[in-house]
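not sure who needs this but someone in the group chat was asking about TetR/AcrR family transcriptional regulator from Rhodococcus zopfii so here u go. i didnt clean anything up, its just raw.
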Amino acid sequence: MRKHLLMSTHELLARNPPVRPSTTALAEHAHVSIGTVYRYFPDIDAIVDELRMTAVHDITTSLSTAIGRAMDQEPAVAMVTVVEGLTAAFEKHAAVLRVSYTSGESEFGMAWTEIEGPLRPLGRIIPARLRPDLDDAAIDDLVFIVMGATASLCSRIALLRPPQSDRDKLVSVAARMLLAAVEDA
């Protein structure tokens, strides 16, 4: 039932972005009583928070996988691999992320911190390979800036892209921008 309520909430978020549904709307959509909703969750925010945590885990896994694939690629291809992987992960969880962006809360910021922290060591690999002239502190600073820029660019492509825009072209442009930032730091 818990899984059913989470899936139903996700469906409602996807159908009516970026509005959080009420628990009553969730109960109606899930074809359960309001008491059933409250048996499993104290409120809609708790459900959205659980969906956000699931998204964070999946985005972290997707970004880790993309960085792992990128390690042996040429720099330009590696950056496209990372940008594509993160953009696709954001797209997969767009409904939950959109609620976080528009609710005036800092859920996405917290989520990104949760994603970025464990990936920082992996995030150092490509910049360190491209910039062997930099010391550890300079690499750390570069990774801090590039990871933030990557999150911003990928989330814009995934969540805010105008309908007439070419997604693949935007991914390519973002990758070139990030590569230039790393190479010219």
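also The two ends are 51 Å apart (CA to CA). if thats useful
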